[in-house]
Amino acid sequence: MNVETIVRVRLAGLAGVLSLALTAAPRSACADPVSELASFSIFDKVDLAQLAKSDVKTAHGPPMKNSRFLAVQSCYVAAGSPAQQIAALRRWNPAKYRELKVFLHSDLQSNPGPASFERLKNAPDNASVRSFVTATQKLSPDLQISKDEAKNFSAAAGGGGAMPPAVAAFWIDVLTGRTKSFVSGGMAAQPPYDHAGPSVRASEEVNGLLREQGKIRQQFSGLLGATAIGRGAGSLPAELYWELLDVDDHGVVTLGASYSRGGAGGTYQSADVLYYASGGYYVALTLYQLWPVTVEGKPSTLVWRGDMISSAELGSLHGVERLGSESVMMKNITKAVTLFRRETGGR
User: What angle do CA 194, 197, 201 make, to 5 degrees?
Assistant: First the structure.
């Protein structure tokens, strides 16, 4: 699975124990970033000077009981302050890099309408997009839409091109409706994936991902609790976006939201959630913790990144196949972070 096109560098209420964690007070900044990193992540020992001279360091996340879930953690040192890194993340556009296989990327206003998704009509003519069009025209059971959304598709409009008018109109309607639901009611307001097969809700998938990673959930409880990832629409403003990308050689449209906030001592936390996908995966979440550090006398940032994904396809992988999928995820994250650091003048 081409996970980095799912988890871009850049989720209402979560039930049970998670809802309790999200109301907890945020962690205070640790005087020693390396020690705080070790307290919640897989990286128990990090040499800042060595890390600053190396590529991004990646590792398998802790094992999880649900076979649909997969997690990878990474850390690296970047030039400049955490505030500068957060600003660069906000500007980051993966569609600039062909190897990341993001065909279209557009930021959204807080109250988007159909016009916000007009670029979908100009999708490139390639095998991934053609596969996406064919799946839509057949209302494939692999499409992750609701039964009510499926009823709205009509091929009567006809037309040709890489993205026929009927297909574009259908997805513009789906994306507009789901974005408005997210803005008004958070993830719990999202319609289920129940067009074919069992009903799946993105909010429950995120709940499961975080519930199985208690230390990470606690580290980010304050941030998550203030967003639509937590309860309702959240209090932190979201930076919304949509993308058309490739997942395993199939075109996928996805909706995302990013959040960030500063903490004590110049630290920052950021969360990026892909809360809707037309196929390939149910939901994806990327969390960042950034600390200001000094390396070789220069202001720098220690970055921890956690990528989590829920996908039906992962549930069928075992043994060597699952390890291979994790390795590909780690490789693609390394690729994306390398491109990001290069663009932003990183080390």
Answer: 40
**Rounded CA gap, 187 and 167, in Å?**
25
| Helices and strands (H and E) in the chain: how many | 11, 8
Tell me the sheet residues that pair with 38: none
Are the CB atoms for 6 and 281 separated by under 8 Å?
yes
Contact between 290 and 303 (Cβ < 8 Å): yes
Domain that includes residue 204, residue range: 3-343
Residue among 337, 340, 344, 329 at smallest CA distance from 4:
329
Query: What is each CA distance from 285 to 10, 111, 140, 273, in whole angstroms?
Result: 11, 23, 26, 4
Nearest CA among 138, 117, 132 for reference residue 163: 132
Cα separation, 111 vs 18, whole angstroms = 29
User: How many whole angstroms separate alpha carbon 325 and alpha carbon 343?
Assistant: 27
Amino acid identity at 314: L
User: CATH number of the domain that 157 lies in?
Assistant: 3.30.530.20
What Cα–Cα distance (Å) separates residue 215 from each residue in 18, 140, 179, 219, 259?
12, 39, 30, 6, 20
Number of structural domains (the chain) is 1
- Give me the sheet containing 57-60, strands edge to edge: 57-60, 69-79, 298-310, 283-295, 268-277, 250-262, 239-247, 102-108
For residue range 122-165, list pLDDT tens digits in order.
999 999 999 999 999 999 999 999 999 999 998 765 567 789 99
Give the single-character DSSP code of 193: B
- Per the CB < 8 A criterion, the answer to whether 287 and 271 are in contact is yes
pTM of the full structure: 0.87
Q: How high is the pLDDT of residue 343? A: 82
- DSSP H or E segment with residue 40: helix 33-40
Q: Determine the distance from the C-alpha atom of residue 289 to the mean position of all C-alpha atoms in its chain, rounded to a whole number.
A: 15
